[in-house]
Structure formats: C-alpha cells, structure tokens
Amino acid sequence: MPTNFTVVPVRDGRKPQEDEDDDNVFREEDEDAPFPGDGMPKENSPFINNTDHDKGSLYDGKNLALFEEEMDSNPMVSSLLNKLANYTNLTQGVKEHEEADDDEGSAKTKKPVKSPALGTLIGVYLPCLQNILGVILFLRLTWIVGTAGIMEALAIVFMTCSCTMLTAISMSAIATNGVVPAGGSYYMISRSLGPEFGGAVGLCFYLGTTFAGSMYILGTIEILLTYIVPSAAIFKADKKEDEPEALLNNMRVYGTCCLTLMSLVVFVGVKYVNKLALVFLACVILSILAIYAGVIKSAFEPPDFPVCLLGNRTLKNHNFDHCLKTMEVDNVTVTTKLWSLFCDSPYPNATCNKYFELNNVTEIQGIPGLTSGVIRDNMWGDYGPNGMLVEKKDQLSVPALDTSQDINMPYVANDITTFFTLLVGIYFPSVTGIMAGSNRSGDLRDAQKSIPIGTIMAIATTTFIYISSVVLFGACIEGVVLRDKFGDSVKGNLVIGILAWPSPWVIVIGSFFSCCGAGLQSLTGAPRLLQAIARDGIVPFLQVFGHGKANGEPTWALLLTAGICEIGILIASLDAVAPILSMFFLMCYLFVNLACALQTLLRTPNWRPRFKFYHWALSFLGASLCLSLMFISSWFYALVAMLIAGCIYKYIEYRGAEKEWGDGIRGLSLNAARYALIRLEEAPPHTKNWRPQLLVLLNLDSDHVVKHPRLLSFCTQLKAGKGLTIVGSVLEGTFMTKEAEVKKSEQNIKSSMTTERTKGFCHVVASSNLRDGFSHLIQSAGLGGMKHNTVLMAWPGTWKQATDAVSWKNFIETVRETTAAHQALLVAKNVDSFPTNAERLGEGTIDVWWIVHDGGLLMLLPFLLRQHKVWRKCKMRIFTVANMDDNSIQMKKDLQMFLYHLRLDAEVEVVEMQDSDISAFTYEKTLVMEQRSQMLKQMQLSRTEREREAQLIHDRNTASHAALNDKADTGPDRVHMTWTKDKFLTERNRNRAEANMGVRDLFNMKPEWESLNQSNVRRMHTAVRLNEVVVNRSQGAHLVLLNMPGPPKNRGGDENCILYGQTPVHSASTASLRHASLPGFVGGRSADVRRTSAGQNVNLWFVWHGTISGNCAAIM
C-alpha cells in the first residue's frame, strides 16, 4: 500500500489568494480556532469520542459540499487525522488510583493528565526481569539441578524458555497490531479469540496470578522459618517423622498472617507498593550479581562449608560440631555429639546403629569450586521416592542389613518423590512474568516499540541467567549438597547462599524481599484483572467484583483474591502449589499463541502488526509446546484446568453478555462456513442425509409482532436444533421507507425464536407486494448448498373476511411457486392450538393418512416429532386407502414389510372406501361454490355486501349440515374392511334415497346440477368422503398427517381450492371436528389443529406432494 501522497488544494473560480485563505479544505490549524484541526466544527464519528460541543455542528465548507449530508456520521480526513494524532491511552490503573487518593477530600481542580513517558528499559525490561526472576531461582533451582542433573536441567530450562520466547513473539505481534490498552493477556486473548475464550482464559490467568501470590508468600515464610529465624516456629516436632507436618502447619499459620498483612497494605494504598518496587528490583539484581561473584571467587578460593558423610550417606549438620565419632581431649578418647545421635549412650561401649558401626565418617567440601571437576559427577540425575537417603555414589560404604531405624537417624532424605515431569511443573513458574510489559502498556511512551524489544530482551537475559546458573551450580557445588533442598547438610544455610559472595545473608535477605515484593505485586495485579473481566460484563455473576472504592480500587475483587490465595496457603507446600499455577499460565500462553496463529492464517484486513518477526508456524509450535508442558507437568492438573476453562467457556456462551470484538474465532467460523458451503454445492445431498430444511413464512400484525408463534414451536419440535431453519416475513412497501419497520420486525421475530427455542436465521424483506416478497424468499433464501427444501406456513384463516381476494390468491400462488421450485410444503391450520415446548403429551397416536407416495416425507415427520419430549410418548399409526379392486389384506402385509425395512415402529390399517354415488350434499356444495365464484368475478361488491354474501353462504351450509345429520347415518358402518356385492348394492341404494330426500327438504327449487363442472363435483366428493373417514378413524389422535393434491392447472379454479379445504363435515357421533380441512391443495403438507367436543386436541396436517428425490429418500 503506498504511503506517499500529495495533497492538492481544490480551487473554484475565485482569486487564488481567496482560494488559499478561505476555500482550501486542507489549510493549517488556526491556533485561535475553537475546534483544532481544520478550523471547522468537527463531525460526529462512530469511532471517535466527540465532546458535546461537536454535536449538532454544521459543515461550512463549499468544496466538499457534495458530502455535507454525510458529515454527521463520516468525518473529514483532516479532522480524523488530527484526532488520531492526539490519541492517548491512559488506563484507569494504579497511577490514577494514587492520584485519586492524593486528591481525596480536597477541592483541587483536576490536573491535566500527563502523557505516558516510560521507555523500554524502565517500562518493560526491568519489570519483566523482576517478575521472571524470583522464588524458584533462589529456593529450588539448586535442588532441581542436583536431582535432574545438568543435562536434564538444561532440557527443562530449554523447553520452558522456548515456550515463553515463542509466546513473547506471538504476544509482540498482537501487541503491535494497533493501540494496546492496559489489560495484558486478557485483553489480547479476548479481543483476538472472542469473549468466550477471553473470559475463560482471563479467569484462568487470574487464578494463576492469585496462586502465584500464594507461592511467593509460601516462599517468603520458608525463607523466614528455615534460614532467618528457625526458632520462630510455633509447631515443633518431637520425632523426625513429624517434622514435615510441623513445617506445613507453621507455613499455614505464618502464611495466613503474611497474606492478611499484605492484603491490608494493598487495601490501604497501592502507592506504597509501587514506591517499594525499586527496592524489590534492587534486591533481585544484587542477589544475581552476588551469585556470579561467588562463582568467580570459588575458582580461586572456594568457601569453607564442610559436609559430613557417614559412609556414603549425608548427615544433617545441626546438632554436632565435629564430623567425628570420637576425638582426643587431653589424651582421653571421648565421644562426640554425633556419637550420641546414633548410640544409646555417650560411652564407648554403648549400643549403636549398625550402619554407624560399620562405616566411618568423612568430611568433604560442600563447594569444591569451579575448577574442581565436580561437574562430571553432576551431569545426570538421581531420582527417588519419598524418604530416599541422599548418598554420594562414588563414596565407599558398608551396607547394613537392618535399615528399619534409618528414618529416625539424622540423614538427609527426599521429602517428596522426585521424577522429571514433577521438576518441570515446579520449575515453570520461574519463567512466567513475561506479561509485565504488556500489562503496563498504558504507561509506555511507545508501546508498539517497547513491548516486543523489552519482553524479548528480558526473556533472553533470564534464559542466559538460568542456563548459566544450571551449569555453574553443577560445576561448583557438590551433588549431595545440591540434592539437599533445605541445606541441612551445611548447617541449615540456603544452598545458593553459600555460593554467593560476600555472605550467604546477601541472598537470604535479597530473596526474602524479592518474594515479598512479588507477593504484593500479585495481590495488586490479580484484583485489577478480575475487575477488568467483571466490567466487561461477559461473566454475569462476576459483575459485583467490578465495583470498589471511590477511586476505583477493586475492594471486592481484593477480598476474593485473598480468599483464593488462602487456599494455596493452606496447601502449604511450595512444591505442590507451583504445578497448579503452571497449568493456568501455560493455558494462557497456549491461547496467546493460538490467537496469533489464527489471525495470521485468516489474514484478516485488520491484522497488520508492526512487529514483523513472527510466523504462524512459530505460534503453532509455541501452542503445541504449551499443551505438551501442561501434560508433562501433571496430566491431572492439566485436565482440571481445561475442565475449568471449558465450564467457564460454556457458561459465558450460555449466559454471558454478547460482545462483538471482531475476534479471530468469528473469522475462523466464517472461513469454515465458506469452505463447507463450497463443498456442499459440489454435489447434491445424498438421500441418507436428507432432512427437512425449513423456510418458515410468518405473518406479522400491525405492530410487527408474530401472529402465530406456535408455528415456531412446531419448527422447534420438528427440527430439535438440527439442520437449517430460516424464518422469513414480508413487509409491503420499499426498503427505503420500511427500513425501520424491517429492523423492528427482525428483532421481534428473533425474540419469538428465542422464546420458542428455535435455532435458525431470520430474514425480513420489503417488497412492493406480499406475493412478490414471498416469491423472492422462496427463490433466494439460503446460501449455496445450505438452502431450504421445505416451506412451512400458516393457513390463511381470515380469507373469507378479506376485503379482496389478495389473501387467498397469495396463498395459492405461494403453493404454486413452491411446487415449481420442487420443494415440499407444510401448511398449518389453527396452529395456535398446537402444543407448546413445555407441554408433554400423554399416551396417544400420530395418525398418518398415506394417500399418495411423496418420497417418504409423510412418514419422516412423525419420526422426527417423536424425538422431541413433547411427542415422545405418542405412537405412530399409518392408514392407507384401498379401492374396490385392491386386495386390502395384501396391501397391509406389504405396508408392514415396507415399514420393517424402513426401521419404523407403527400400526398399519388399510381403509376400504366404497365407490358410492355422489351425494346431493356434494352437488349442493359445488353449486354454491361455483355460483359464489361467478358472482365475485362479475360484480364489484362492497365490503358490506361481501360480508353479507359470506354470511348467507355460511347459513346455508349450516342448514344443509343439520338436515343431512338428521336423515343420514354417516357412522362407522360406512367403512368396511371387506365388501360383498349385496352390501355394496344395499348401501348405494340407501345413500341415493336419503340424499334425494334431504335435497327436496332443503331446497324448494330444482337444482341445476347439469350445468356443474363435473371435475369440481368429483373433487368435492373426494374431499367429503375422505374427511368422513378421517373423522371416524382419527378422532382420538393427537396429530393427523395426510397428503393433498396440487392446485388446479386452470387458475380460474383457485378459489375453489380454498373452499375444498373449508368443506364442513359432521360425523354421526356426538364428537365432531369443526371446520375440518380436507385435501385439495398443491405441493406441500398442511396441519390443522382443532378441538373436538370431547376436549381432545386433533392436529390435522395436510401433506402436499413434495419432490424428494429417490424412493423414500427421507427415511432410508
């Protein structure tokens, strides 16, 4: 992208001088102008924080008058550049809280905020150095070197430092991709991977920081009680085997007191912690320098720290002064204090430990020096179980047969079982702290430059320190001393301290203050991290922790942090707490690497880091290394940490506030969706994968609210979240005039979808008329291979009351277009009575009337519905209709075998319908239907006249039903499973006589049946007869599904289709179906929900022909 360009002033026809003074849009800023930048009032912008005086300002220029209407939303380039140049990023952090504390209670005017002024050295390098170097270096590194050996210790250092270096590279790329506000890793992960990952990993990072505070406090107490004032221990062990438990109890008591004191310091004022930060940093640096000075001095003059060995076993040098069994005093041989430790009396003839009798004591130097060659003995590790004695392998000894009393002897032994992976987990916290620079990004002069350089240099420096320390410790210190964790063999001195120059107290005091400072910083940073997460609002139950004191101090978050930190204190073991916080930090680093890799691979336009030395392969390598180290350190803790993060992720996904941060996961989803859509379109879906992909056409009322929400309930019960669901509607008008109504309608539909638990997409279009709008939806809904194959809509129940024929004509045209698009159609009548998602239907049936073969969709519908809890207890019944020349017994056997192969459990019944004559009622209904249709075509009836006409037809229908119900028996005896010739003739003659009598009673006129359209008569006859059978057989069913034929090819008979569906039918029994709809429609399936007089819900669904490719493709 070119960055060099020339600004050319635009001139009009006036003088050049006037052009330069008045009309140059890009003129320089006037110092006295009330609005800096271009000397004009600034335009409002969606991404610039404008002040109040900017609002409502008008554009005064003339050269860009073409764009003056857009100035309210889109600023001029000159104005934008001016505001971006003055952009600052001061966080509401510790510095602001200090200023608020200083100004509290005073009426001082607010001081102008100073610009960030910290550079790379002070702002990033030294804070990272202070956070990385800490308790593990001073208390555990020598023990790790002695236990693992130099080679394996170097492997541990290399793996962990490589992990942090790769993470730092990924973090540098993210941190330099735009302005980085304060927030550290949480901000980077949440804005890169989305609120779900950001919240989950942010809380894990918070827990890691909190447990790090526990670790530092435990390190402080260990230094205090072991090396500074051992006599301050409250719990003392009478027996040697009780010493570990006594130490843990002392750690718990003193650790709790120390945590309380530190929490009070943080609560009173963080400014005191910040003022001591330089002291803590000086302690770390002086301690490191003292170690290197001691190593150099040991090459010429090793310090004198003797170690006493009994045979090859190392002795605790606490209760004796001389490494001798006996000694000459005034030419008299006397026993030493060491003798008393192994014998039952101080006399030479006392009974002593067998191993003590067989072996001599020797004294070696604990620090032989750099040139002693001890490095060869320390190259390889010496792992062992808990209680294993620390022995010098090349020292001669005579083994004793009885070792049962060794545990009570003053030997140096392992306090825990040691193995390589344990050491990895204990060591990893010593390389954490690389986020210190990014956490202070708001205080940096140039964060995009300082963060990468300072962080990488700090990691390189600490890596050199750790690697050199491993080699130098192994080359200078005796192996048995290295494996002595608490320095018992060197009179209780800190092992790393005896190597330092000029005195061990330099390291002891330095490490003590270093651990104190690190603990205070953890208790300062963790509550602010929790406060940032709470204020983001992504975890609802944490919102209370977003509040604090008047100056913003996170008081509630501090209390929670202290409570969690106390859990680590109660564990009381530094070696047990370290792997816990290793898991949380490793998970954080894992997602930092993953975020960088995803952003790089997706190549989003906004991904333009200034730091160029990154690659997606390095990020993936870092993420893989983090995951490997998690399971290497502790597979159990790794699973627990991942489970915690997973639970937080799902909770935020389910209950969290919706945030749109342009994260990489969304970009990954878009890429995956695009790839999947392209793959889907390569070939048509196989019949085994076929399922209804619904387009739901909704009607909205005048307030743009869904008229039939139960249509969405049915969709939920049918789909159960599987497959595609598109919910659409149409508003009449143009999009320019209906934009607000369209958005409101979409919001209402989405709200109804949420209420009815319908998972899918919403699409509302504005069209000049409803018919074209629904046509556009049917044609264009979906994308690529994800298109609907089934249309679901409601029956136009108010078509009679409509002022014109638009309602039913739109319906018929929708049916035709669905058929033309080779899609199935479901039409629901009286769908408002459909069961809700909360209802649970009891024992009942779903009846399927399989009249024509539709590819299997009619049988698939009840199968899918029964997967939902609403319909789970319902059974499936399948009815099919046999003609006179069909073998009904064989049909039933064939249908049962057919269902067996389809793996469907259903009862099968074959219904035989007699070939009876057309009844007088049928002729009368057909005549009324045609007369009304003709009248509506020839006359322009007013609304009142049309309503009167509709009422007249309804009254005629009611009278006709009453007459036929009194004189005609339409009971179950009309339907027989088998027929004889005599039964057939008797039934036909009786029907003819009753029908003629009914007509003569009803009409005092001669019916003009000869002029009726015989096709309409036959269709009406089929509708009446079939509905009679359905009423008789399926009165107790919860749901009835049946096919419907297509609409007439002649558009002149469209209105007749609606009338066929409204044909009233009565049964001879007292229970009747009011307004029972009958087959007579096209290309789809329809459902009719109605209530019988017995109070039963009968859901009657008419199923039209759907084009499902293959034979029974939907349920194969």
UniProtKB/TrEMBL annotation:
GO terms for molecular function: potassium:chloride symporter activity. Residues 1-53 are annotated as: Disordered. One of its GO terms (cellular component) is synapse. GO terms for biological process: cell volume homeostasis; chemical synaptic transmission; chloride ion homeostasis; potassium ion homeostasis; potassium ion import across plasma membrane. Its main location: membrane. Residues 18-33 have a biased composition (Acidic residues). Residues 709-827, 837-1050 form the SLC12A transporter C-terminal domain. It is a multi-pass membrane protein. Residues 124-296, 414-695 form the Amino acid permease/ SLC12A domain. The keyword Chaperone does not apply. Pfam families: AA_permease (PF00324), SLC12 (PF03522). It catalyses: K(+)(in) + chloride(in) = K(+)(out) + chloride(out). The chain crosses the membrane at residues 118-141, 153-176, 197-218, 251-270, 277-296, 416-436, 456-482, 494-520, 556-574, 580-601, 613-630. Keywords: Cell membrane, Chloride, Glycoprotein, Ion transport, Membrane, Phosphoprotein, Potassium, Potassium transport, Symport, Transmembrane, Transmembrane helix, Transport. Belongs to the SLC12A transporter family. K/Cl co-transporter subfamily. This is Solute carrier family 12 member 7b.
